[in-house]
Design brief:
With 128 residues, the chain is mainly beta. A hairpin with a 7-residue loop joins strand 5 and strand 6. The chain has a four-stranded antiparallel beta sheet with strand order 2-1-5-6, with no helix packed on it. The chain is globular, with a radius of gyration of 15 Å.
């Protein structure tokens, strides 16, 4: 398994850059928690399956963009450690967009897990 862009997004971005084809991103993005590498989005899903909509309201700079509003999963339903996330284009079902890691957080049933505004950083390598 590997973290990063979905194959569909990677191909669309490459086609946009190299073949001048149009690329339209999803209208909204939803974050799901995982207890290990999500692969293409479905592996190691957290027991608490709610996806939270992420807002990226500030333009990317230096090959990076961050969430502009906090993400909160309230009253989590299982005790587990969240170590990864996946991003989707819908609150349920939908298409996998990309994945990454988060700092491991041991949660207990009933806890609230929060990613502060500016703490979900999405980056692409940029030549220096």
């Amino acid at each position: 398994m590997a973290l990063g862009l979905s194959a569909a997004n990677a191909n669309a971005i490459l086609n946009a850059l190299c073949r001048a084809t149009a690329f339209t991103g999803p209208a909204a993005l939803w974050v799901k928690l995982h207890t290990g590498d999500p692969g293409t989005g479905s592996s190691n899903a957290a027991g608490h399956t709610t996806r939270i909509q992420a807002t990226f309201g500030t333009a990317a700079s230096g090959g990076a963009i961050s969430n502009t509003a906090a993400l909160s999963w309230t009253n989590v339903s299982t005790a587990e450690d969240y170590t990864h996330f996946s991003v989707w284009d819908a609150a349920t079902a939908g298409n996998f967009q990309f994945s990454g890691t988060i700092t491991a957080n041991a949660m207990q049933v009933g806890d609230t897990f929060q990613v502060a505004a500016g703490a979900l950083n999405v980056t692409l390598p940029v030549a220096a």
